[in-house]
Design goal:
With 464 residues, the chain is α+β, with helices and mostly antiparallel strands. It is built from eleven helices and 25 strands. Among the domains are: 121 residues, no CATH class; 79 residues, no CATH class. The strands form six sheets. A five-stranded antiparallel β-sheet has the order 3-2-7-5-6, with helices on both faces.
Length: 464
């Protein structure tokens, strides 16, 4: 090491900062991926900027090899990336990913310099470590796992208000992502379970720029790639918890994210174990009171590891009435349930009962609170005699109307006895020829899992 270069040119009339200058400027306020940058010169790569953990900013190394050795020594993945760019255009020319040796990196840097291009060598940060990457601008945050920040240019990203996104990152990863500090700007960022970057924190900022206000609504909906990472049931409960409706204290044991907990203490020492599939599959996977070996449960129900994202241990709610609520296609708010914990009702083995008026009023108030943020919703609920608890939440109205669970005409109608159960219904739906509709015979609720299954299959279905 031989000293430090001045950070920035003093000429205020410069039309724009170079890509590595912008990165160094960003590092003054935020955590960035560890990097060393180089400019082309007759002698080869000429070091420009440097941000390495536990090293003074912009320390100059004796030569290119020494700088790259220092970068490799601090790269948790033991690999580095190199991107090249011109002085006048910030867009990358060439990008080399996950270089594994100092020799290969130095050779690439010398070649790039000989072509008259600038370069940035930075630590490789694994985007599939269970964290997320995305873009924050104004009050809008869009993000997804297993991708760079540019991944939000493809469908499937999560979209949340800034306050909600920060709260979810705090709950799931246990860290303050620091997104509130960006002010009126647009930033590309990533959040990681383990510390990374020159400041060794959990959030990496990749780009920072002026925020141009656009008419871009925040559509809070799922499934999305992040809800699939955590589990559909988990994501819905996180959103309900953010809105402030009661959610039982829940501990999440995920496949790809370390255990975390959220929700309100119900006062009960009893618990439920709930499976959380990647996407909703009504009534297929286990939900049961009491503790069961989660390892055996997952192995038995998802041996390939593709269907279940997580297991939930949830505090029990002393159940006075339990059930589900949906919004029909005509706007009707349908509330159904039965006394007790409600498993029989949801599975179609117990007929809906008359719900007391004060329970209906409490459910209506919860519905209004949720709908104010999410629009049309569907949810499963438990009433303990005093208040409503949410145990599952989804967005969107149901296509049902009246006794038509799935509207539509059919060439022929097949009668299905609800008493045969959910799995028999699933098997029938798998083998049902086109043009055939269903008539359900039995006391089945329009909000039950039986109804959910036929709606997902989109087969014309009526209640007898």
């Amino acid at each position: 090491m031989t000293g430090s270069k001045a950070n920035y040119p003093e000429d205020a009339a410069l039309p724009a900062f170079r890509k590595d200058q912008k990165l160094d400027l960003l590092a003054e306020r935020f955590n960035v991926a560890q990097f060393v940058s180089f400019a082309p010169s007759e002698a080869g790569p000429d070091q420009q900027f440097c941000r390495l953990a536990e090293v003074a900013p912009n320390t100059l190394y004796d030569n290119v090899s020494a700088a790259i050795e220092a970068l490799f020594a601090r790269s948790a993945e033991a690999t580095i990336n190199i991107r090249s760019f011109s002085e006048t255009q910030s867009q990358s020319r060439e990008f080399l990913y996950a270089i594994t040796s100092v020799e290969d990196a130095v050779s690439a840097l010398r070649r790039i310099a000989s072509e008259g291009a600038f370069s940035i060598a930075n630590e490789t940060i694994n985007v599939s470590d269970g964290g997320v990457s995305g873009v924050a601008m104004g009050n809008l945050v869009e993000f997804r796992p297993d991708s760079t920040p540019r991944g939000v240019e493809r469908p499937g990203f999560a979209s949340l208000p800034l306050e909600w996104a920060s709260a979810i990152f705090k709950t799931v990863y246990g860290v303050d992502a620091g997104l509130e500090a960006i002010g009126n700007a647009r930033v590309e960022f990533s959040v990681h379970p383990e510390r990374r970057g020159w400041r060794q924190s959990h959030t990496i900022f990749w780009e920072y720029g002026k925020y141009e206000a656009v008419d871009r609504s925040i559509e809070v909906s799922w499934p999305n790639d992040f809800s699939c990472l955590l589990g559909d049931k988990v994501y819905g409960l996180l959103i309900a918890n953010l809105i402030g409706v009661p959610v039982p204290r829940t501990t999440v044991i995920g496949r790809r994210v370390a255990p975390f907990a959220f929700g309100i203490d119900t006062g009960s020492s009893e618990s439920w174990i709930r499976t959380s599939p990647v996407v909703q599959v009504p009534g297929k996977f286990t939900t049961t009171k009491g503790w069961r070996d989660p390892f055996k449960l997952v192995q038995a129900e998802d041996p390939d590891g593709t269907d279940l994202a997580s297991i939930l241990s949830q505090q029990s709610v002393p159940a006075f009435y339990s059930g589900a609520a949906i919004e029909a296609s005509d706007g009707e708010f349908i509330v159904e349930g039965a006394r007790g914990s409600g498993e029989g009702f949801m599975l179609g083995s117990v007929a809906p009962e008359i719900i007391p008026q004060y329970v209906r009023l409490a459910l209506g108030a919860v519905k209004e609170r949720l709908s104010a943020h999410l629009g049309s919703i569907r949810f499963e609920w438990v009433h303990d005699g005093e208040k409503v608890w949410i145990v599952q939440l989804h967005t969107g109205a149901s296509q049902s109307s009246g006794r038509d669970l799935v509207p539509g005409e059919a060439d022929q109608w097949v009668v299905f006895e609800v008493a045969q159960g959910l799995e028999a219904l699933r098997e029938l739906l798998r083998t049902l020829p086109p043009g055939i509709g269903l008539k359900l015979d039995g006391a089945v609720g329009r909000t039950s899992h039986i109804a959910d299954v036929v709606r997902k299959a989109n087969v014309p279905t009526r209640l007898i």
